[in-house]
């Protein structure tokens, strides 16, 4: 699985993992084929992003807007302690005490899903509150150069 591991200190480690499990205390990332893996402690993580490509798509800026969808999908708006924000759909019945999976609201995102470490999160809004937070964010950021926004998680895979 291709991943971008984001630590709470701002460090980003890109590569492949074969042993990540949300219940484990550690996992490894191979940053180059055949390299010695980097061992990461989950307690030091902000989130691990499972991505389609390690190069990302610099010409695509992820939308923080929830698209109109049919059926019932639980929406979540996440604000990390460092100010970064995410809009998406939680996977599973609850936002666990240790962490949780979320699928980005933007289906064209390079990020397929993310596992968010709960202790790195300032606030989680769900349902209508998530929708309102998303709309307010989009209105405030309209016209901004997305690559200069501190909280743009869509460019994580393109940053070394």
DSSP E strands, number = 10
Inertia-based shape: globular
Number of domains: 1
Question: How large is the count of helical segments?
Answer: 1
Structural class: mainly beta
List unreliable stretches of 5+ residues: 145-160
Distance between the termini: 18 Å
Strand content: 35-45%
Chain oligomer state: single chain
Widest sheet, order of strands: 2-1-5-9-8-7-6-10
Percentage of residues in helical conformation: under 10%
Radius of gyration: 15 Å
Kindly report the average pLDDT value.
84
Topology as a string of helices (H) and strands (E): EEEEEEEEEEH
Strand count, sense and barrel status of the largest sheet are: 8 strands, antiparallel
Protein described:
- By secondary structure, the chain is mostly beta strands.
- The chain has one domain.
- The chain contains one helix and ten strands; from the N terminus they run E-E-E-E-E-E-E-E-E-E-H.
- It has one helix at about 130-140, and strands at about 1-5, 10-15, 25-30, 40, 45-50, 75-80, 85-90, 100-105, 110-115, 120-125.
- The strands form two sheets. The protein has an eight-stranded antiparallel sheet with strand order 2-1-5-9-8-7-6-10. A two-stranded antiparallel sheet has the order 3-4.
- Strand 6 and strand 7 (about 85-90) form a beta hairpin.
- It is globular.
- The two termini are about 20 Å apart.
- Residues about 145-160 have low confidence and may be disordered.
């Amino acid at each position: 699985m291709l991943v971008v591991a984001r630590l709470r200190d701002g460090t980003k480690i890109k590569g492949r993992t074969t042993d990540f499990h949300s219940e484990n205390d550690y996992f490894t990332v191979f940053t180059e084929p055949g390299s010695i893996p980097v061992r990461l402690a989950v307690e030091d993580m902000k989130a691990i992003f499972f991505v389609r490509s390690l190069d990302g798509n610099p010409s695509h800026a992820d939308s923080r807007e929830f698209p109109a969808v049919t059926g019932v999908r639980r929406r979540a708006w996440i604000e990390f302690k460092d100010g970064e924000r995410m809009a998406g759909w939680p996977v599973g019945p609850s936002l666990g005490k240790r962490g949780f999976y979320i699928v980005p609201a933007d289906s064209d995102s390079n990020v397929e899903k993310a596992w968010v470490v709960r202790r790195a999160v300032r606030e989680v809004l769900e349902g209508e509150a998530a929708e309102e937070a998303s709309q307010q964010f989009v209105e405030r950021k309209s016209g901004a150069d997305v690559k200069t926004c501190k909280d743009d998680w869509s460019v994580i895979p393109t940053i070394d």
